[in-house]
Amino acid sequence: MTPSTAAHAQMSLKDFETLASRAPETVTLEFINGRLGVKPVPDGDHDEIIMWVADQCMAHRPDLRLYRERGLRTEQYRNGRARPDGVLAPQRHFAGHGEWSDPAGVLMAVEVTSHDHDTEARDRQEKREGYAQAGIPVFLLIDRDSDTLTVYSEPEGGQYHQKDSCPYGGTLALPEPVGFSLVTEELKDYAH
After folding, report:
1. Positions of E strands within the chain
2. Nearest 5 degrees, angle CA 107-CA 63-CA 94?
3. Which of 54, 80, 85, 187 is the least buried, fewest Cβ under 10 Å from its Cβ?
4. Measured between alpha carbons, how far is residue 180 from residues 54, 57, 66, 77 in Å?
5. CA–CA distance, 152 with 164 (Å, rounded to integer)
6. How far is Cα 137 from Cα 175, in angstroms, rounded to an integer?
7. For the segment 19-53, what is each residue's pLDDT rounded down to a tens digit?
8. Pick from 60, 57, 45, 37: which is nearest to 140 by CA?
9. 180 DSSP β-pair partners
10. Would you tell me how many other CB atoms lie within 10 Å of the CB of residue 13?
11. What are phi and psi of 152, to 5 degrees?
12. Residue 4 has pLDDT above 50, yes or no
């Protein structure tokens, strides 16, 4: 993603926000890299994985909450709009916010891949870059195609500079400011 992306956007940010606010509840829209995207409706395994992450966060960090589908302003100059599967932030952090929040104060974004044609570009590349550009300290990608977890950290200059991965069943350390490890044995129940 480059700063010039906004110049080649499919629509204005204001038009996107108007469209997104009027979309039916069965559709989740995002504006990533200047393009309108429709986020797939999650299946049951996707929901179970996100709930597993939420349970882990509550067990290790009861001062934090994993907010599902929280709208964030992402990318350089906040020209993107993403709805991560999960956003880890202090309890009550989003009180009083509108539909789209500034990412300041968010400790981690979480994405669980969907089984669709856009996953490669959307979850593995564009969102990762957008979260890094927004300065979100940790990005956790749970990849259901490869049955792996990857944690990205140390965002600087629009890129994450640290990366660590493990297969389902392994242990993955989430760096500060999250600061705990995930023991992922349960995720094997959702492998296909």
Report:
1. 28-32, 35-39, 64-67, 71-74, 80-82, 86-90, 100-101, 108-112, 138-143, 148-156, 159-167, 171-174, 180-183
2. 60
3. 54
4. 13, 9, 14, 31
5. 7
6. 9
7. 777 776 666 665 666 666 665 566 678 899 999 99
8. 57
9. 174
10. 17
11. -110, 140
12. no
Output the six-digit token pair for 51: 């709930």
Give residue for tokens 């110049």.
Answer: 7
Half-sphere exposure for 12 (CA within 13 Å, toward CB): 3
CB atoms within 10 A of CB 112: 24
Q: Which tokens sit at 149? A: 């977890």
The answer to the question of residue 7 being in a domain is: no
Residue 100 tokens, joined: 């789209």
What is the number of structural domains in the chain?
1
Indicate whether 86 belongs to any domain.
yes
Contact 43, 185 (CB under 8 A): no
User: How many Cβ atoms from other residues are within 10 Å of residue 48's Cβ?
Assistant: 16
| pTM, two decimal places | 0.79
- Which residues lie across from 67 on neighbouring strands? 87
